[in-house]
Specification:
Layout (H helix, E strand, L loop, with lengths): L3 E6 L7 H8 L5 E4 L8 E5 L2 E5 L12 E4 L4 E2 L1 H13 L8 E4 L3 E2 L2 H14 L11 H10 L12 H19 L6 H15 L3 E3 L1 H10 L4 E4 L24 H7 L6 E9 L2 E3 L12 H10 L11 E3 L1 E2 H11 L3 E5 L9 E10 L2 E3 L10 E9 L16 H14 L3 E5 L7 E3 L8
Parallel strand pairs: 1-10, 1-11, 2-5, 2-10, 5-7, 6-8, 7-9, 11-15, 14-16, 15-19
Antiparallel strand pairs: 3-4, 12-13, 16-17, 16-18, 19-20
Helix pairs in contact: 2-6, 3-4, 3-5
Length: about 425
């Protein structure tokens, strides 16, 4: 029986997972997204074109692969339709190679309003959500009042009206306006009809059968490990489990069926929205990282906060998911820096630690080590043999610090700008 390999982000999201899923996809038969909602934009570039995926797995561009939207995903039919139709117009027909779990929860129009109302009530303590209704949908899931994709096949109008009325009662309590709901609801119901054109499956059984048949599965995560609902920088987190354990619950995969765990990180750090960020640079260097890295959200357009690489957080997320292979993204963004700093530990109230504390408060002082930059253009390099010694030293420094090999280095956004360091560590 085959194992499921897992690919996930190790920082605060936006690490470049979509590109690497696309690069690895030829070695797999099925690509399965296991959690998250349509705020997670995966950007892919190849053959001169740029694509942004919200809910559809990043293996969709490899024509002979099956892509699965798993049970742990929350799906907005309107955004799904926009995404799918956009891909179809670009020549990528999805209906024959995308299946959707019946147990995936639906984001309702009223979920968006509840999201906005709850953020407005928090004032300065707001989390900085994207307002797409993802958190309230996961709330309904846990409260056992949610609607799932499979409900569209069974007495759906009644179930929808009951859920809508519950939400309207809540919105009245929040004293939040519902202007525009009628038009949004009309568009949503039309999108439900579009959604029904796709194959619905019991994805846990579908994937279990595939593994028994010897087919290879790559599980794709969304967001980043430091946004995990249980182990991230709570409460400034997402509403699902973004670590490898989320693959088991989001796809119905047994823990013993997990194979390799690919962890993706940037050569520096970024974060979107509110919340703690120990190595954030609120200066000219931070702006420079943002500009050189084009650090703006692929779905939201929001500017990403930027800082140096944080090895305390990286070691922590590697531990949480049992990462076996690392993939370093955007090393080319550091090409022009004379000196590169890396946080190796924290100082908290005069005490140094390499462990992530319970809270990432303002009392954390990052302790840095400095490494020389490589001061050359790596974006045109095609093999690791071309890497300057300073970049090799940077890679070796990280590997030594975290105890996991870096198998791949990305030197640009295009599919071709991907350099393998250790071919034996990748699937064939």
């Amino acid at each position: 029986m085959e194992k499921v390999d897992v690919l996930l982000g190790l920082q605060w999201g936006d690490e470049g997972k979509g590109k690497i899923v696309d690069v690895l996809t030829p070695a797999y038969d099925l690509i399965a997204r296991f959690q998250g909602g349509p705020n997670a934009g995966h950007t892919l570039e190849f053959e001169g074109n740029k694509y942004i995926l919200r809910s559809i797995p990043s293996g969709i561009f490899q024509g002979d692969k099956v892509n699965v939207i798993g049970s742990g995903v929350v799906l907005d039919p309107i955004l799904f339709r926009e995404e799918a139709e956009s891909l179809s117009r670009s020549g990528h027909d999805l209906k024959g190679r995308l299946v959707i779990s019946r147990k995936a929860h639906l984001i309702l129009p009223t979920h968006r309003l509840i999201d906005a109302a709850q953020e407005a009530m928090k004032g300065d303590a707001k989390v900085g959500t994207t307002g797409k209704g993802i958190g309230p949908t996961y709330t309904d899931k846990v409260a056992r009042t949610g609607l799932r994709v499979g409900d569209t096949e069974h007495d759906f109008p009644k179930k929808y009206q009951e859920a809508k009325q519950r939400h309207l009662t809540l919105l009245r309590a929040y004293d939040y306006p519902t202007d525009g709901l009628e038009a949004l609801e009309r568009e949503w119901l039309e999108a439900i009809e579009y959604l029904r054109q796709y194959a619905f499956v019991d994805s846990e059984q579908y994937l279990g059968r595939a593994l028994r048949e010897g087919r290879r599965v790559l599980a794709e995560g969304a967001q980043g490990s430091m946004l995990d609902i249980d182990f991230g920088s709570y409460p400034f987190v997402t509403s699902s489990n973004t670590i490898a354990a989320g693959c088991c619950t989001g796809l119905g995969i047994a823990p013993r069926s997990i194979g390799e765990v690919y962890g993706i990180f940037k050569a520096y750090c970024t974060r979107v929205g509110s919340g703690p960020f120990p190595t954030e640079l609120e200066d000219e260097t931070g702006e420079r990282l943002c500009t050189l890295g084009h650090e703006f959200g692929s779905v939201t357009g929001r500017r990403r906060r930027c800082g140096w690489l944080d090895l305390v957080a990286l070691r922590y997320t590697i531990m949480l998911s049992g990462v076996t292979r690392l993939i370093m993204m955007k090393s080319d963004v550091l090409d022009s820096f004379e000196t590169i700093r890396v946080c190796t530990r924290y100082r908290i109230h005069g005490t140094e630690t390499e462990d992530l504390p319970y809270e990432l408060g303002a009392d954390i002082e990052p302790i840095y080590e400095e490494l020389p930059g490589w001061r050359c253009d790596t974006s045109r390099m095609t093999s690791a043999e071309e890497f300057p010694q300073e970049l090799r030293d940077y890679i070796a420094f990280i590997e030594q610090a975290v105890g996991v090999p870096i198998a791949v280095v990305s030197v640009g956004p295009d599919r071709e700008q991907t350099i393998t360091l250790h071919p034996t560590l990748l699937p064939h």
